[in-house]
Design a protein that fits this description.
One of its GO terms (biological process) is proteolysis. This protein has 708 residues and is α+β, with helices and mostly antiparallel strands. The protein contains 23 helices and 22 strands. Helix 15 runs parallel beside helix 16 (481-491) and helix 19 (610-627) packs antiparallel against helix 20.
Length: 708
Amino acid sequence: MFSYRSKILIYITVLLAVGVLASLKLHKSPFEIDTPTGVVDKNTVLLKVVMQGLNSAHFQPEKVDDNFSKKVFDLYLKRLDVNKKFLTEADITTLKKHQLDIDDQVKRGTHDFFNQASKLYGERLKETEGYYKEILAKPFDFEKDETIETDPDKITRPADKAALKEAWRKYLKYQTLGQLSEMMDVQEKAKERGDTKEAAKTYAQLEADARKKVTKTYEDFYRRQSQSTKEDQFSLYMNAITNTYDPHTEYFAPEDKASFDIEMTGRLEGIGASLQEREGQIRVAEIVPGSASFRQGELKAGDIILKVAQGNQEPVSVEGMRLDNAIKMIRGKKGTEVRLTVKKPDGTIKIIPIIREVVIIEETYAQSALINEDNKVGYIRLPKFYADFKRSGGRNSGEDVRKEVEKLKREGAQGIILDLRTNGGGSLSDAVEMSGLFIPQGPIVQVETSGSQPQVLEDKDPAVQFDGPLVVMVNSFSASASEIVAAALQDYNRAVIVGSPTYGKGTVQQVFDLDQALQGGPYSALKPFGSLKLTTQKFYRINGGATQLRGVTPDITLPDFYSFLEQGEKDQDYPLPWDEIKPARFKPWTPNWNMQTIKAKSQQRVAGNQSFKQVAQQAERMKERIEASKQSLKLATYRTDIKKNREETKRYEALEKSMPSLNTSALASDLATAKSDTIKAGRYNKFAKNIQKDIYVHEAVAIVKDQL
């Protein structure tokens, strides 16, 4: 069953890769642009070949017209000057002559807009370098009642240079305020410890030290800017073009591709977090299962990394830093410590120490535990969908989940919880195989390649491995293959989907080496060109609806701390739209329970659960704080707000610790297999213990019981 689907997927992928690369081959290129010196311009060639790839192989190619031009214009300037601290409104007016001409420039293979925008940005960069030195040379008045807008979308661009300098004054004051508040916290803790030396500094000394730290931050920032190459700058422009097609279509400069390859290997010497640059901030997109961050437990998806320190060294700000440069600082050798200063979604600042380590591969695989609450309920956690196509007999998630189900059945599980929370996806064939464990044979997902009829991927095995009560847990970080499994089991009425609406990524990407596309002629001397990641396919549910954009809406939605964060596919720039195709033919499961009754019982439990009430309240307060993006620059007000946020977080943590524990245990078969391997046995027991206080697992267990 697995090998059949794997061969189909590999066959489709190979055909697609060959077709695209063939379409990109330029043995006799029409793009040879001679400069006055007779040298072919690398950026011109790169622009031409990327545009040819986009327009010939993307799932839904953009029409290169004035609308495309406006999108590129807006997206590039948004990313070039995220916080509106460099370019003035007068500068934007100057650049607007290109607003409707970028499409024509792209067709010609020229980049006049990029050249002028880069030149203007460089000039403002030099001017603002003088601003921070002058402003930070004098103490700030933190008793003055003034505010600053922190949401880039709400910030008004400065009209002229005078307004630009005033914007810098408030911005630097805000950053100094944050440093000063942190120092005052340290001083308060020193007083509690009786450390008289640390506690002896006056307010004036602390304020001066805070300005010195911010000064160092900008010295580092401008030094990095001076080291930025033309290739770095052009990569930003290329991605403003590719991302108008969709958020997952990207250009990788040669160095960026190397970073992408490292992230895809599954073996990382570092902290094990997938990062993304968004609106000038380095955000945690995903925690790699089994990694140092995963085991340390404090760094979460949605956190914003503000600073990075090597061990006890002085932290370096990564605000406004290129993603690849931030990653270089965070990565490091096994056994070394990195200290991350992060801003949590609730606004609190936290320093998280992480010892870099290689991913423990076993923790990326499917694991299970038994919950003994009146009835035995099996729990399976799948951190990601994985498959080893390179080695015969290599592990794959579909087969591993099948084995876990079999073990749970042998140990008396009457119902099963499949936890796909924060599972970003992976192997499509395994999503098909996994869904088939719980239904008779039938379609699981439809996959469409542009210009072709959708292909229906089916479970061809008529056997049902487990036919008892089933709950699938999802959240807003569940994506791609996770959404396929949840959608299929929901469409079949086979499982109760529980949690929060999923991410909404219903597309497939392929990465193509541009050096293979550009062979011969003058191109060899210009290599390397990098790579192009293209969206080439789209997923559809068996009911005909796309998982793209809308994701999967749970049957039972539970309060979610992250529900108000803009983190789904719908919140990205220019995502592909939701649509629908013809439904596949399938026979729904006939459950022996009523969904409306199940929902009503869950709603009653959740309404009376203090932990869920606290989650809902925190989510509402977070929404209020996000919307109220103006921050006070008055020290007393700022510190009152920070302390209030911390107290709310502590109350929730205390409530979580006080709730009753589920009676969980590692599987007897796993412990028997571990035998004298105390490390492996400890890992099994720790896994079972980690779910005891999880309020979402508590509710999932209750829902399973409602189905019995």
